[in-house]
Amino acid sequence: MADWVFDGGRVSIDLVNTLRDRKTGGTELLTSTAAVGEWLRHAGLAARAEVAEADLVRIRALREAVDRILRTPEGSRPSTEDVGLINKVAAAVPPVAPQLRYDRDNKPRLRSAAVADPVKNALAIIAVDAIEAVIASVVLRICAADDCGLRFADTSPKRNRQWCSMARCGNRAKARKHYARSKGT
Ligand SMILES: [Zn+2]
């Protein structure tokens, strides 16, 4: 099982993070149709999806378009191809959002809705989420760790969040700083 992370704050950014270690060449986690199916399940977008080879190509293309569009600086315009791709995927089906479910532990979870084409539906949900993120001027940040590259929506009050997560990179940075300090004295 891949080491999925869902710290992006939005499903479209979580998809972008399925290409890990972007600062150091990139590690592909969507390596097969089975991996895509697994990610869609973990993301709460499709419980049991028949993922075709064409879907694997499509979801990676969508992922890179989302990344480029969300990283486009304010005042600039992303490429017509990227905007066209996102619009096309979003328009493929009117997406049916996942449903709210409570398990025995009383924790709220998302359960994918029953639809005719779960993969198409999931990709449309992601594309719509990306469009909403652009319109809402979501601040996309890249984790400050040199060897990370994970993206996240910065919703901190001062828009100064540095780490993809405190547990993953924040504590590592703190430990390094502490080590450097203790070595210096
Ligand atoms: Zn990180």
Give structural notes:
The structure is a single chain. The chain is mainly alpha-helical and 185 residues long. The protein has a single domain (11-184), classed as Jann2411-like domain (Jann2411-like fold, Orthogonal Bundle). 45% of the residues lie in helices and 10% in strands. It is built from 6 helices and 6 strands; from the N terminus they run αββαααββαββα. It has helices at residues 11-16, 33-42, 53-70, 80-91, 118-135, 166-184, and strands at residues 19-20, 27-28, 99-102, 108-111, 140-142, 151-153. The strands form 3 sheets. The protein has a two-stranded antiparallel sheet with strand order 1-2. It has a two-stranded antiparallel ribbon with strand order 3-4. A two-stranded antiparallel sheet has the order 5-6. It starts with 10 loop residues before the first helix and ends with a helix. The mean pLDDT is 92. The structure holds zinc ion. Residues 143, 145, 148, 150, 163-164, 168-169 line the site of zinc ion.
